[in-house]
Amino acid sequence: MEYLKSRMPSTDTMPTLKSLQQASLKDAAVPSLTFLRKRIRIRGNSKFGVPLYLVLLFPCIVVVVLLLLFVRHPDSPAGRLIPSGAPPSIRKISEKHDKVFYSGCKDPEAEAKAYPRENAAFVVLARNKELDGVVESLKSVERHFNRWFHYPYVFLNDGDFNSTFKETVMNYTSSNVEFGKIGSEHWGYPDWTDSNVAKEGIRKQGDAAIMYGGMESYHHMCRFYSGFFYKHELLQKYDWYWRVEPEIKYFCDMTYDPFRQMAQNNKTYGFTIAVKELKETVPNIFRYASAYKRVNNLTSQGLWEMFVEPKEGYNQDGSRKPGTVPPSELPKDDPKYANEKTKPLPEEIMNTEPGKGTLPEIDPEAMEGDIYNMCHFWSNFEIARLDFFRSQEYEDFFNMMDRSGGFWMERWGDAPIHSLAAGALLSPKQVHYFRDFGYRHTTIQHCPANNPARQMERTPYFGPRDDPRENPTYGTPALDTKWSTWKEEDDYWSKWDAGKENGVGCRCRCDMDIVDVETKEGSCIPEWVDIAGGYLTPSGPGR
């Protein structure tokens, strides 16, 4: 018995079940790792070998590299997978028809002293109750631009401005201000329409929950900005205008005079945001715009294509896609053949009685094969030559649109009216994209990246009239509060965003709560880029 005990292993050295399982797993893993380390000879008699794991990994690396090249290529739609704002996703646009006037910062004080002001003014349509929103806009305009250039303001209202509104506005502006009232001939229902029918049309839009469709004043505002603002007596002396809305915000310092640059470069219309309109607000607008173009025998100068869906076989700018045959170039016996130019203009377009009932349904063949893509320049910011709106061509366009009844029976905005008129009458060379101007209205914004090499120190800004510290009554509670507010705001704008490759802005500080509309779904910048010449690639322009 003693002999048997001496031959039995001690319990301290006996393996447990757990340790045996772990050892088994370890032993099982070793062969697989050893297998991956096995060297594969390049040739049968070669002394040099490559580990098997490298042989297996190499094809994976090649696939990843090819995918990255595909995503990064500017012609690839997969480029949208790259995070917005990350270089080199800020793509350069062809300068064939248009280019940024100046990328980065200039010395605005030197600019203002070197050149006289253009014959231009800011135009603000507002009511007394919108005073807070107006002040917000004025502070932004003055801080980022007008404290150097001092362009005058024209305020318009369909009623009378009260003294509080006027006095407050004067305290936030650095230049001359005029206040005007809009006459009944430019605001309200025209004599030739049945106001009861028009009001019923507006009521129905409200019932249908069409955005702003049930607001009578909104319809009046859209019609005013479409065909009458430039006729107001206070604007007759000006050649240019810059539209300013209540509750807007600029993100960048605008250190050159855009009016002077527009004039020097033979530009007529400038925008900073282009988006798609809500389809339910303008179901018949394109039918009438296309009719105007047709009856006046107008040929597109290249801008019209921005507002239509590309035809089969063609790019957005009207150029033919490689390797395709457009239907209009097929043999006449081909079932796909369609010669839109021979299609007659339906009588219903010209014979619709204005303001009477619901407008007829769209007939696609009434528009020479063109389909409206809903794009328009967002006109709450626009810088434009007033003689464009004063021209007989624009007047005829507006009258045709106005007589259709669409400002009442539908909710036509001034943005698509201005845009479609520009499309019919202007060329891409006459339009400018203010890509370097950061701008926000409501929940839509465009804010460029800063030019990494052309930033300059800024001069502090403490209000349009004077620096509170230099006021003899400085030290009173009221001025202390005012100084504190201006100082806090100035501290914020003194810390601008870092520059990025291909950035064009000057001291921009972007809001981060909203995606830039330039890269957002619903933006019409891709359509603009196409008709402007495409994006630039290392080898030249490309789509």
From TrEMBL:
Residues in the signal sequence: none
Regions of compositional bias (Basic and acidic residues) in chain numbering: 330-342
TM annotation in the entry: 48-71
GO BP, sorted A to Z: cell wall mannoprotein biosynthetic process; protein N-linked glycosylation
GO molecular function: alpha-1,2-mannosyltransferase activity
Keywords linked to the UniProt accession: Glycosyltransferase, Membrane, Transferase, Transmembrane, Transmembrane helix
GO CC annotation, single: membrane
Source organism, top-level taxon: Eukaryota
Keyword hit for Glycosyltransferase: yes
Ranges for region Disordered: 314-342, 461-480
Active site: E382 (nucleophile)
Similarity comment: family membership: Belongs to the glycosyltransferase 15 family.
Protein name per its UniProtKB record: O-glycoside alpha-1,2-mannosyltransferase 4
Organism expressing this protein natively: Extremus antarcticus
